[in-house]
Amino acid sequence: xxxxxxxxxxxxxxxxxxxPPASSGRVAGGLPQHFFEQNVSLDSxxxxxxxxxxxxxxxxxxxxxxxxxxxxxPKTNAFRKKFFSSVSFAEWSxxxxxxxxxxxxxxxxxxxxxLTDDELDALTLHKAPFPFAIxxxxxxxxxxxxxxxxLRRAVVPVFAEMRRxxxxxxxxxxxxRDSPVPGLVHRYPDRVLFLTTDFCSTYCRYCxxxxxxxxxxxxxxxxxxxxxALNYIEATPAVRDVLLSGGDPLTLPNDRLEWLLARxxxxxxxxxxxxxxKVPVVMPQxxxxxxTRMLKRYHPLWLSIHFTHPDELTAEVHxxxxxxxxxxxxLGSQTVLLAGVNDDVDTMRRLFQGLLKIRVRPxxxxxxxxxxxxxxxxxxxxxxxxxIRGLRGFTSGYAIPSYVIDAPGGGGKIPLLPEYVxxxxxxxxxxxxxxxxxxxxxxPTEPAALL
Length: 451
Ligand code: SF4
Fold this sequence. Notes:
By secondary structure, the protein is of the alpha/beta class. It is built from 17 helices and twelve strands. A nine-stranded mixed sheet has the order 1-2-3-4-5-6-7-8-9. Bound molecules: iron/sulfur cluster. The site of iron/sulfur cluster has 11 residues, from loops.
């Protein structure tokens, strides 16, 4: 067999577009079924392949790991077999299936987890425009019994959502005020926020844009609205950075997303495009090879991924982030500080250190925005400062995000730091290090003598 021909067959065997038959022990291309169910390296399959052909040079043994099928973590696999026993692994790993089978009602959810009266009330009485939906994959990570499990608190409604407290507002960041055209926020001088869609695969109960996501309105994805936003960007040379957000842009089909990326990349003054998404966490199967192949055509492209808790760092998420990073996309994380979910140093350390291991740089830690019904999620600011103080010096600087408050009323992000400067006088500074020890730093002065 010719080298080129064999290489292309290897690639085809592992291409995810060629779904394996679900029932047989062997699948198309002769790969064993277990290969599709676990994160089996192609290296382990290379030895017999190489034995069959002595014409292959060693470098051809290494089909890149990103061509492997999605793995499935043991907890999720047990969940799939228990609640979706007729669903093949191939279907489960198809993001379209995940989207079609989102859990959106109290009755569907109560068949899988034991709802408390409070959760049931919230789900059945929920009249607000902010909807409820969870992908089957993310649901597999929830505790079926404990309502205080962090991931469950983040996505299952509770009655406290119905209570508005002082200072809460539908649009706390005044985004609508700073929108020159529907769905485009122009607040900072050189960049805009482009709300591509109002749709998310899973709805976070603390979403800053709960006023608009999931209920159809000005921010539904439509070419007409996108064209208005694109016309504004084209006519505004100061805009050098466009952040695509929503809703979740990675829920858009590849062709629509590519249409938008292509239009933006043709605007001469747009230097970088960023995407904000939670999809790699709640529906990692969406990160297909076709998607990453498409995205890498639009560099420089950056991706901010919304992570909440270390329990989200599964084999599937690792795989999705590996594909994105291997496509040359710098990955950052955004995390909202949430009471009872991630508001302690140990949880945050495990999350941020875990993110570095999957090549995601912790970028922002946000104080939770005061949307209506968010008081049960919001922590005192001192909690965020305590977390940063508990990280700085105790772990790599790369694992420490910027802690910010997005100022209510549209003031933008304001960074917050624990107090490390004890005194600033005419000589210099008295500084406190991470151990609480004091050090003096002298400001530069005119040299008094030769060395
Ligand atoms: S993924 Fe983002 S936009 Fe969607 S509900 Fe969560 S926070 Fe809101």
